[in-house]
Design a protein that fits this description.
The complex is a heterotetramer, with 2 copies of chain A (511 residues) and 2 copies of chain B (464 residues). Chain A is an alpha/beta fold and 511 residues long. Chain A is 37% helix and 10% strand. In chain B, helix 4 (83-89) runs antiparallel to helix 13 (332-370). The chains are: A alpha/beta (511), B alpha/beta (464).
Chain lengths: 511, 464, 464, 511
């Protein structure tokens, strides 16, 4: 492994880009800008040639496992195949090279697409009002909790607490805190279900929101979902659904139908947006009618073409018969609607980010929904659940699965016995799997299961791959503990010293 | 249904292994009463070919900067993106991987993020960068939250009106329920006056947020503003334009404690506003309050240098409601793009890019003012964008004239600044040619003598 | 100069190590009298940004099949290319590597080529495929050369007039100095008549070259023609349309000894005619006369299965003037594309694609004939393209009308077949929608009552 | 290394593509096509899912070395960096999705580009007439020899032989044979230069063409170039320049000026077209005025817009003032010229392929020439020669370079002494270099140097890379011969059995 950084490759005088000569009359920058604001020299970035940059990054890329190269059963992350057609669509100049402040009439194709995404997400969630703005699932949580806060302020109720099961993603309590709520933890059972006694004990009139992940993070559909939601509603609270696990229930069950008032989607999980090594994502949220006015603005609206007052004023010739050509040379829209950004939402919580949304992610989600359709989306969930259950049925024979014999899209096995009997931890298994050519499952989450190993195969893997993974995992559990403690053995590096990294931090190149 | 993964035979074998007779049986844990019981009401599935044709038709309805000429700015810019950036970011191993939890099979991502952090540190002149946030606005809001956390009981936040209005709105949303007092210092002359700022400061002020160059493109007297803030014991959160740093002083050099920016200019397409790249850097003393992922260097068990996610005790998956933020990912792919972009430009490329923006925007502003129809709204010097006042007060007509000519002319400011309803914010990047600029002047100033075709021809000759 | 690799300091160090004082000195072996002594008379260098803008402007001058509607065929087709094909072919490791001389670091290319050969063998029904040639025409010429080599003293080559005219021209060029007699069998009814072929055959005939479906889109009685050729002791070289094999018998199944085709349809963009993919396959007995690269399976020194270039003694780098051909590369990148394309389609996808071509082309032909202005030039059944006669004898006007409407209408045949000067060759791929076809009919048949806009609207509605 | 083939991954019923329903009235294929022509079933292609196909090929790619990942000093192949800007340009829909039979007026941008390429190549070669048609260098050779044959036929001279130096590429004699000539080999000296005695002895009136590679394949500029050319011309013959090594002399010396009558270019070498794992390339040829009429047709011609007779007839409104808009929505051409395909060349040898040319390769070459300009192209050659000489200066100390201390773009070292003294062959060195992370140089070509190792670094490598390579090569020459015989040790496979491959051929999957 070549550990040279870009900075190590730098040599004074090297260039990879050549900018054109200035073709307008130019003056010295010092004449145009105040001396106090000017730097003596530009920042000390590395100086490189194009071939160096290309080779550096192409080789760097090869040190990553990825969905396109390996099975990646990282529980809770839904590492499904990213269809290449979606990437092509998102790269079209008319999708990629458009500015967020373009006049509406010059961006009707995009607005129409975004309007449809709002509609589709509402249909899938069973929650009629949608805002696409949030930049990630966690920001969707925050936005929704701010919606709840505004709602309660509006109806003059003071509620300060948010209920969160202990097996929820850490983002749930963190978002609650950011939104100004106190987070109250609810216990869960071995099965992953909410401990109803604890829940009822903690539910009071100060509870603003119950945040619930359903199916939950051990891959179980909350058995008391209806009871939980009814109890919260009865006390005047709201139910928030963490949509991270929507991949299990598309077209099967809708949060709006099982009691949620709000939810976010993770389009980069459920609708196949690539994870990009950590991002970007998006976090659109859907809410009930009564919460709709509080959503972040703008949202996309639609009205009949004839109602386009603006164009009546300024456009010389609004075409008759539906279908005005707004972009020179482009065919007419043809369906008689005009799409616009609706800023006129006085109760809105405001913005959680600049510009419209993570549009590029939403374009991919749109493509995914359009190429699957209602049957295809349901089939996605069916196959995701089939794959997870099949893998569970193979794994449970050598690694116990406390939640039982059934799961939705993922399951959580435990290496607790292996740990106590042979000293082999979940981490050891995870690391050793890398040697066998598999990305590791999620380990040590949720904390409610000891030595947990959380496996989410997704629907885009074949039975052959699942079989190979189960066999590898089994083989690993049988291997010499010493071998496992030192694993992985075939990767460029092995077991980095994380303690040293945090104690004596080196967070940038200092050459 | 465009994909078939498991074949019908596979399905049967798998169901048998599980011990159920149908896929439906697997869903038994979903109570019947909570099932949808009907197909989703969505359009039927398309194949890839139909999708392609459909998306092509939608895309045609969007005037795009590859064929139109874009003078829009306000935080998203039509800067040039070298092809290498796309090549790197479209490597499967980068874009189909996830957060590097398993460092052994993620050194590619981890090293790239470490390089990104190093680039940002050098760019900003500050000590520490995280591995990125969502966008400029949320980075600004996180900067404010950091300041509040660092400020103990200080509960006042002062914003310059020259800070991007959507950043100000985002900050307001983030702090809405946190008992924070938000104060905005006006900028009647296009810049933040030190006296006004000092007036807004008190010993309850956690931070001041200023933008350099500001939303109007004007260059602020940032050093003086920072000094005033520090004198009041407040931290300085600086929003900056990364391209401007080819010429301007770095935030760390003029006194910023936290610097944030929208990193879209660094190699990411405008894509109608997102996803983008939130850059945030801070001084050493604030590092443990930093939100988001941070990559650190360490050694592996054999002593090899390597990279890992570090300082994770700040984060929500460990600290839950006590975390510095709820952010649990980064914008890795765009941080990668920014790293590649900066590597390709180098110091000289960044400087030349900045200078082209400066010269060309100045040229356009002067040409417009010569016409008599327009005047600069503010006297302050500007970098790559500027506010122009239409003496005929018809910004809507100007925008429409631009569209008709295939030009995206400028951003009308009335939406955010009612007093600037007769103004446009116009940005000129290094991509704009003199011919394009001259043509814009012609379009905006009006062209009564019908010489348009000549200029159009001139533009076309420019293709040789 | 857009790139600087060695810095000025590097240069000095390197010159010193070499022992010269300047780069000029390194060129001393070029006699002064043979030096150019002036700069090349070429336009000055552009940077990447300018290049992008320049190429975009040139590209705008080309009506392209992504926005226009393409009914052109004649050997190059607007078939759909799944995005995965581009993703695979744009992997650096594929497109920036070269001929796999070092098998140890080229198993990716070698295995892909082995898979390509396997695909072609299954596609053609023949025994052996090489790893590709330049294009369909040169593959046809190489097939003729193979036949001549195999035929000993046989020096006559019989071509069907239904073979692509440019393939016939290429064959003529290749054999121009080899003392070969070329005979063309006419196709007055659009197909090769067995009786005409038999008349053209003699015992000096090395091979017969026929195309199925032929250049006019007509389906030949290929089995009968092959039988006639074999009866005369000649080999059969078949040119075929790979997409047609979703429905039609494979060349190996109807008697071809050598099968060649243009592989562009299998996942390669039309790119104004090249580079393309020459497919060639043959029966086992001809393998040692095969031109070009062939990949074979073997084992390495540890017994691992692997792939290598093989049968290299046929090739020019070893046999020089005794080689089977001068071809010393293949079209690896497009062979890879074809492999990915066929892997994505599978047998059912190929069949469905073929069927869509068949149905849609038939529908267009019928709609055109209904109008009264057009008639089919030939009675023979056709697959995806057909020849239509304009009773008003104005193919040029038709093409122009098409362009005006954004349609690439058809290929006028007068250039190659004077007797068909009033005819167009029209191809309909799976990409063409009914709305597009109906609109073409309207454009070609004429639209006196001004209902165009209605149809245009209908087309647009189709985007929902 | 996973050696599964696509066919091994296949399962009946899997699909990766979904085609639309037929939207026109459909009939059974058996009704529309004769039964005798119809297959019973489609070909037995493998049945796969998209994720399988993607993962298969992405992982397969990782088994290749390439320019983007490794230094690739493969002599005679000019493995230079392929600028990514060129790929982007060639992928524009207006460049990629255009049909070869489009009407000229709908493809003026492409025709203009191709016309310019003709002009640039003529300027670079010093040979005024250009045909872009040939699909590869070898086909360019063939086309040029056919031009020569036609020329001699036309002037009624019977010449049957072609002279080829023994260190020429094998394509030279092979092309001569294909063009109907007898190939006569001329000896070369240790320096790589043509043996003048042998040359003069073999030059007679039957010689149609001298094919010469200059700089030659050992990287030496032929010292007697002028004498050779003059002698051939004196006997009425023609000189053909194998342009494979043009990377050494761009803007420095022009074949037309040093005596060549014909030459081909390898745009995929000299002008940075990617090599694609073996292709595609292109083989444009340039010739003297007198040979121009024989070039393959069509070539691109240019005439003033006003002379466009066709458009005068059919186009409703030819715009005045130069610059008719031919493509709807596009800006006008603006320079007053009309580009066309010139088929009217009665003496042409005809076609050597279908359609116009390897246009996609030529688009990249155009981009390369435009982004370099006259100074940049010369600098390419200067830096290529500098890099080669620098590497030679380092290598010669441990591996003799028979040609001497100077070279042009490449040099040929010999491992003959190493072989005789320690049993280490050129092949051993090549294989062992792979372990050190370098692609091997070309070995055993040219045959005129024993145990030859032909190194061409190209201009796109840095001094650091050259130093690292020289050090690795030196280290390898010092290593244990046993280690070298078994090398490489770190690659997925090592030393395939080529003899077995050729004896017992397995040329396709037979599952």
């Amino acid at each position: 492994r070549d550990t040279q950084l870009l900075f190590d490759l730098s040599k004074p005088g090297r260039r990879a880009t050549r900018l054109p000569e200035c073709d307008v009359p130019a003056r010295d920058a010092a004449e145009l800008l105040p001396a106090a604001a000017l730097a003596d020299a530009p920042p000390a970035l590395p100086e490189l040639s194009e071939p160096q940059v290309v080779r550096h990054f192409v080789n760097l890329s090869k040190e990553n496992m990825s969905v396109d190269t390996h099975f990646y059963p990282l529980g809770s992350c839904t590492m499904k195949h990213n269809p290449k057609r979606n990437e092509r669509a998102a790269a079209l100049p008319g999708m990629a090279h458009v500015h967020p402040y373009q006049p509406e009439e010059s961006i009707q194709g995009m607005l129409r697409l975004l309007y449809e995404v709002q509609e589709y997400l509402s249909e899938i969630s069973g929650l009629p009002c949608c805002s696409l703005q949030a930049a990630a699932g966690a920001q969707g949580e925050l936005a929704a909790l701010l919606v709840a806060a505004s709602y309660f302020r509006d109806i003059d109720e003071k509620r300060t607490k948010v209920l969160v099961p202990d097996n929820a993603h850490g983002t749930n309590p963190a978002s609650a805190a950011m939104a100004g709520f106190d987070s109250v933890t609810v216990k869960t059972l071995q099965s992953g279900a909410v401990d109803l006694d604890d829940f009822h004990a903690k539910l009071d009139d100060e509870i603003a929101v119950l945040m619930i992940t359903n199916p939950n993070t051990v891959g179980v559909f909350e058995p008391a979902m209806r009871e939980l939601a009814d109890a919260v509603h009865e006390r005047g609270g709201l139910v928030y659904l963490d949509g991270a696990n929507m991949n299990a229930i598309l077209g099967v069950s809708r949060p709006g139908d099982f009691g949620a008032d709000m939810q976010h989607f993770n389009p980069h999980k459920t609708f196949s947006g690539p994870h990009g090594g950590g991002g970007p994502g998006a976090g659109p949220i859907c809410v009930t009618e009564k919460l709709g006015p509080y959503l972040p603005a703008p949202v996309v609206g639609k009205r009949p073409e004839a109602g386009d007052e603006r164009s009546d004023q300024t456009s010389p010739s609004p075409a008759g018969g539906g279908g005005r050509t707004l972009v020179p040379g482009a065919p007419p829209l043809g369906e008689g609607n005009y799409y616009y950004l609706d800023f006129d939402r006085p109760k809105s919580i405001g913005r959680v980010r600049s510009f419209f949304a993570s549009t590029g992610v939403l374009v991919r989600a749109y493509c995914y929904m359009r190429t699957h359709g209602p049957d295809g989306l349901k089939r996605v969930s069916e196959q995701a659940v089939l794959n997870a259950n099949y893998l569970l049925s193979r794994v449970k024979h050598f690694l116990p699965v406390p939640q039982g014999d059934r799961c939705m899209h993922e399951f959580v096995a435990t290496a607790a016995k292996l740990k106590s009997e042979r000293g082999v931890s979940a981490m050891d298994l995870a690391k050793r799997l890398l040697d066998h050519g598999f990305h590791a499952p999620t380990v040590y989450f949720p904390l409610s299961v000891k030595e947990s190993i959380m496996v989410e195969p997704t629907e885009s893997e074949s039975k052959e791959t699942l079989d190979a993974f189960a066999e590898a995992l089994f083989r690993v559990t049988e291997e010499d503990p010493e071998l496992l403690h030192d694993a992985p053995h075939t990767t460029p590096i092995s077991r980095p010293d994380e303690v040293a990294a945090a104690r004596k931090t080196v967070l940038c190149y200092c050459g | 249904m465009p994909f078939t993964y498991n074949t019908p035979e596979d399905e049967q074998e798998m169901l048998a292994a599980i011990g159920v007779s149908s896929i439906d049986e697997l869903f038994e844990m979903v109570p019947e009463s909570l099932r949808l019981g009907r197909p989703l009401d969505l359009p039927p599935a398309m194949g890839e070919m139909e999708l392609d044709q459909h998306l092509n038709k939608l895309a045609e309805q969007n005037l795009n900067a590859a064929t139109a000429v874009c003078f829009l700015g306000g935080g998203s810019y039509d800067h040039f993106v070298p092809a290498v950036v796309d090549v790197v970011a479209s490597r499967s191993e980068f874009y189909t991987s996830y957060t590097p939890y398993q460092a052994e099979v993620a050194q590619g991502n981890l090293q790239a993020m470490f390089e990104y952090q190093s680039m940002i540190v050098r760019l900003t002149g500050l000590d520490v960068s995280n591995s990125s946030l969502y966008d400029g606005a949320s980075a600004a809001a996180e900067g404010v939250l950091m300041s509040l956390a660092a400020g103990g009981q200080r509960k006042r936040v002062v914003l310059s009106a020259g800070l991007h209005p959507e950043y100000r709105e985002t900050i307001a949303t983030y702090v809405a329920n946190l008992g924070v007092e938000l104060v905005t210092v006006p900028t009647p002359n296009g810049v933040t006056e030190a006296a006004d700022l000092i007036e807004a400061l008190d010993d309850n002020t956690a931070c001041v947020v200023v933008q350099q160059p500001n939303f109007f493109g004007c260059v602020e007297d940032a050093e003086t503003l920072a000094q005033a803030a520090h004198d009041a014991g407040a931290l300085v959160v600086a929003a900056f334009d990364p391209i401007s740093l080819g010429l301007l002083k770095r935030p760390g050099d003029w006194g910023a404690d936290i610097a944030v920016c929208e990193g879209q200019s660094l190699g990411t397409a405008m894509q109608y506003g997102g996803p983008y790249l939130g850059v945030i850097a801070c001084s050493e003393k604030l590092v443990r309050r930093m939100p988001g992922r941070i990559v650190g260097k360490t050694t592996d068990r054999r002593g090899k240098p390597c990279y890992v996610l570090t300082l994770q005790t700040r984060e929500q998956h460990i600290r839950r409601d006590k975390a510095t933020s709820n952010v649990c990912t980064n914008q890795a792919l765009f941080a990668l793009r920014a790293t590649v972009y900066l590597a390709l430009l180098g110091p000289e490329g960044l400087k030349e890019t900045a200078n082209l923006c400066l010269q060309k925007s100045r040229y356009l502003a002067e040409r417009l003012c010569e016409s008599g129809r327009f005047e600069r709204a503010f006297d302050a010097p500007t970098f790559k964008e500027f506010v122009i006042r239409d003496c005929e007060n018809d910004t809507e007509g100007l925008v429409q004239d631009g569209l008709d000519a295939g030009y995206l002319t400028g951003v009308p400011l009335g939406r955010w600044y009612p007093e600037l309803a007769d103004c446009l914010l116009i940005a000129v990047t290094e991509k704009r040619t003199k011919a394009e600029i001259d043509r814009l002047v012609e379009v905006l100033v009006g062209n009564p003598d019908g010489t348009t075709s000549t200029t159009e021809q001139e533009v076309a000759v420019g293709i040789g």
